[in-house]
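tool_log.txt
---
The assistant was asked to compare two proteins side by side. It first ran the structure predictor on the initial sequence, then on the second. Raw inputs and outputs are pasted verbatim so the downstream comparison step can read them without reformatting.
(1)
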Amino acid sequence: MNSLNVTLRTPLKTLFDSEADSVRLKTDLGRMEILPGHATLVGSILYSKVYIRHGGTEEAFVVRQGSVSVDEAGNVAVLVMDADKEAELSIESMEEYLRLIAEQLENPEALNSYQRTFLEEQRQALQEAMSG
């Protein structure tokens, strides 16, 4: 097997659906690179840049809240709630999302423990993504 079948999609759109040489991203367990012949896996994604190398080029996407899976046939599915091409995403939109999270966390008694944990994890993951 010399390539992967990669799909990157949100509930509303498919951003990538083609063969690729590799996929790099960060799951809740750490950074990884998926190459042809990779073991099967399922992982969670909070906020990550996803790099898909294909045809001698590399496309970069910024994704939020989802999962990645690799099956025995080399199919890689990155299914997320939101995704944008990195070139189309501005630092202002990332900062706006951080402000929204901060506003929600200012009133913690209005949130249950799951919501607080989710927002805190989103804030941390976003800050890490913005720093490199």
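(2)
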Amino acid sequence: MAALTGVLFLACTGLVVGGRAIGRSISPSPALLEPGDCEQPCWQGIQPGVSTREEFAQQVREVDLYSGRATDYGDSIAVMFELSTRGWLTLADVIREFGTPERVDCLAWGHSTAAQSPATSVRLYFAGGLIEVSAMRADDALRLSPDMRVRSIRYYAPGEPTYPVGKTSKWRGFGSVRVYPACHMLY
């Protein structure tokens, strides 16, 4: 009887571990980035400069795949909110949803504490710079590619600071340091 209980316990443990691994390997639909009933910058009907920090927090809780934070100037109206995508999405997913990026920051390299290895990261800008996407890949090949994992997406209210003028490049497609400048960052 003890042997049967042990076998059943191991089988159930294997099913739980296997189910979690499969669940984490499946990317959620990029449709979770849809703006909803407002123009970009907007996420799920939440718009910086219009919606409150609490409305944003409530929507993050409902979606439950992302975590996030929002900032305001003391009046509870979110002037910036950030979705932490936990690496669920790729850069290809975001570009399919948002369209072609307008600007690209330098290709940064350094040692990633998250990946515990050398990593390449980049920021891309959409909607006139009001949406900033941060992506990375755990290798030191300085190239921008569609398989990069998205770490976060920031949405800014019109009039808030966006990409640094003169420090970003126009979108020229996916490519390496032959297309985009490199910079060194420790993160």
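---
observation on (2): The CA atoms of residues 22 and 40 lie 33 Å apart. The two ends are 53 Å apart (CA to CA).
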